[in-house]
Amino acid sequence: MIRLLSLLVFVGSLSVSARCQDVDYLVKQGVELEKAMKDQEALLKYLEALKIAPNDVKALCRTSDIYCILGNRLKDKKKKIEYFNAAKTYAGNALKQSPNDPDANYSMSVAMGRMALINSGKEKVENVREIKKYCDAALAVNPNHTKALHVLGKWHLEVTTLNFVEKAALKVIYGGLPPASLPQAVLNFEKARSLDPSFVLNYLELAKAYKENGQSDKAIDVLNKMQKLPPKTADDPSYKAEGKKILESLL
Questions:
Q1: pLDDT, tens digit (0-9, with 9 covering 90-100), for 55-110
Q2: What is the reported pTM?
Q3: Domain presence at residue 214
Q4: What is the CATH number of the domain that holds 94?
Q5: 3-state secondary structure of 44
Q6: Is the N end or the C end of the chain the one with fewer CB atoms within 10 Å?
Q7: CA angle at residue 144 from 89 to 101, to 5 degrees?
Q8: Are 195 and 149 in contact (CB under 8 A)?
Q9: By residue range, what is the domain housing residue 144?
Q10: Would you say 202 and 229 are in contact if contact means Cβ atoms under 8 Å apart?
Q11: CA angle 205-111-25, nearest 5°?
């Protein structure tokens, strides 16, 4: 009887180990597909991994991030919201499993950021408030989380450019927000650039921050460097095209 129980435990441990290996393999495949700019195919790999292990934090985070990426490319607002809500759900599930995980907190900050960009009024205000909360949580664990630094820079940039109605709503509903500033946006973007000099989108947002802060010479320098970067994601060509337009307007 003891031998039988030992055998069952051994077989069970082998089964768990095999499932873990399958999940890791599928997530690695998804990451490679992202590098190959095949985001839709990558999403399928992450979803396949979640069928095996629904609580796998890495698979949940990557799924959330891909939903944000794909949703951002859609033109229909209702579809965008569907994708961003899915991203929020997967990030939320990751946070349930690991509340202090920097990637899970980053993923939630991105989902909130995407919603903020398409919402207005009270909904936008609520999203904006949550972005910083999750960025701060990610950076508290990993101060060098490149993408969380980028999102925090974007938060400072967006908050400083909120319209009067939105700023008033923030004050009424939440008593305002922590101070936001263009110099702080620049600092966050610059730190992200030092950690990953190939992050195309970060150059674009850094240039916008410099431009808004009246530092056109630095914006021009950043945009010139951006144009020389090779694309690493499917969206990078469009970011470079946007950057080129801004550059031409500054020359």
A1: 999 999 999 999 999 999 999 999 999 999 999 999 999 999 999 999 999 999 99
A2: 0.87
A3: no
A4: 1.25.40.10
A5: helix
A6: N
A7: 35
A8: yes
A9: 38-154
A10: no
A11: 100
